[in-house]
Amino acid sequence: MPVTNFSHPDPYKYQTGFDSYHETEAIEGALPIGQNSPQKAPYGLYAEKLSGTAFTAPRHENKQTWVYRIIPAAAHENFIAEDADSYHTRMTTEAHKLHHIPNQLRWNPFDLDEKVDWVHGLHLIAGSGDPTQKQGLGILMYAAGKDMGKEAFYSADGDFLIVPQHGVLDIQTELGRIILRPNEICVIPRGVRYRVTLPDGPVRGYICELYQGHYQLPELGPIGSNCLANARDFQAPVAAFDDEEESEYKLYSKFNNTLFSARQNHTPFDIVAWHGNYYPFKYDLGRFSVIGSISFDHPDPSIFTVLTAPSDHVGTAVADFVIFPPRWLVAEGTFRPPWYHRNTMSEFMGLISGDYDAKVGGGFKPAGASLHNVMSAHGPDSGAFEGASNAELKPQKVGDGSMAFMFESAHMVGVSEWGLKTCQKVQPEYNEHSWKPLKRHFVNPNKKA
């Protein structure tokens, strides 16, 4: 199995299974038996419920976790806007502050930033919708070089799907610890508090924040019960807690894309035990089981979907997370790269490592990105087209050492001021370099010489 092989072992323990009901305790007997909220919880703990959906959501959609902690999460001072103007400027999804344009866009690799921590290294590139209405999504880059101190962060706006491109994230969440490296992903649900430290130095990567619903595995339909991302390969943390008395912490809240902070005199990481189905999880992209055509033509790129967030319209997603891992191409008589197309969905692509097989000109690089918005025409660049049109169609392994991905959405995505101008990474001649060199090959049989 082509599982990512890292040079040092993961120091933390995990439970396996996606969307499973888990229970875990750091001290034996800390989980109450038969009751969620007994009159007195074991060891003098407080019972607290973390709800990711409405209480009355259908059972198959209901997300909740009961936690047993030393001090309730409510015990903090009032939140105060934290440098609200500058943070709001680089995080806003207000419609009048986003640029909705039909042009194809591509970004050079985004910079590392060793001067800031996780909280202050988040930058919105593009987005759609409104977190106050729980509609839409935001696409962010993160770049940080400092550990968070005695601090914690949570987003009230949505679930964070984190895709590392460079460096290692050591994520201490309320529900346990996660180590996250490139070629792995992590989802931290709305409201879960966490702290990020950097054991191997500066980090950089991508985030798709989901304002609407939660990520889930896609339905497999005629594929059957296996392949793509298998539920058993997802990992959730086990309970781990800090026991600190009278320790000063700062709690950050991302609330309608504005940063607030509050002080509290105890650690946020004091959950001794928990049970439920609302928790952070991670997944190794090397475990994705790729499928494809073994005759002619190739299926839609939806066959590479790892996670999806459905909209209210069946078969249409607020966000799909799609990857393009190493794979074999064997289709006969077929143009093998992605075809030229215009899509009702918006496609934001990033590159973790290597080269993407549909872009051979060198402009799409690791830590860069591209955006092809609703109905913006795109496809292979001229070099990829000429090569694929004239190649000998033998079985071919593509993507060795490469991992590209796509955040795809039914929403028309607006580009932030930071993404379009401030970061100064937009390639001004992307369209001209990619598609203007395409040659005319048409031979009209009805045209007289």
Task: Give a quick summary of the entry.
The protein has helices at residues 84-91, 382-390, 417-422, 430-434, and strands at 14-16, 22-25, 46-51, 64-69, 80-81, 105-107, 122-130, 135-144, 151-155, 159-166, 169-173, 176-180, 184-188, 194-197, 203-210, 234-237, 249-255, 258-264, 271-276, 281-284, 305-310, 317-324, 327-329, 346-353, 369-372, 396-398, 403-409, 414-415. By secondary structure, the chain is mostly beta strands.
Write the layout of secondary structure elements.
Blueprint: E1 14-16, E2 22-25, E3 46-51, E4 64-69, E5 80-81, H1 84-91, E6 105-107, E7 122-130, E8 135-144, E9 151-155, E10 159-166, E11 169-173, E12 176-180, E13 184-188, E14 194-197, E15 203-210, E16 234-237, E17 249-255, E18 258-264, E19 271-276, E20 281-284, E21 305-310, E22 317-324, E23 327-329, E24 346-353, E25 369-372, H2 382-390, E26 396-398, E27 403-409, E28 414-415, H3 417-422, H4 430-434
Parallel strand pairs: 9-17
Antiparallel strand pairs: 1-16, 2-19, 3-4, 4-19, 5-18, 6-25, 7-8, 7-28, 8-15, 10-13, 10-15, 11-12, 11-14, 13-20, 16-20, 17-18, 21-22, 22-27, 23-26, 24-25, 24-27
Would you mind describing this structure in some detail?
Keywords: Dioxygenase, Iron, Metal-binding, Oxidoreductase, Phenylalanine catabolism, Tyrosine catabolism. This is homogentisate 1,2-dioxygenase. One of its GO terms (biological process) is L-phenylalanine catabolic process. The chain is mainly β and 449 residues long. It has two domains: 272 residues, Jelly Rolls; 147 residues, Sandwich (Jelly Rolls). It is built from four helices and 28 strands. The strands form six sheets. Strands 1-16-20-13-10-15-8-7-28 form a nine-stranded antiparallel sheet. The chain is globular and about 95 Å long. The model has no long low-confidence stretch (mean pLDDT 93).
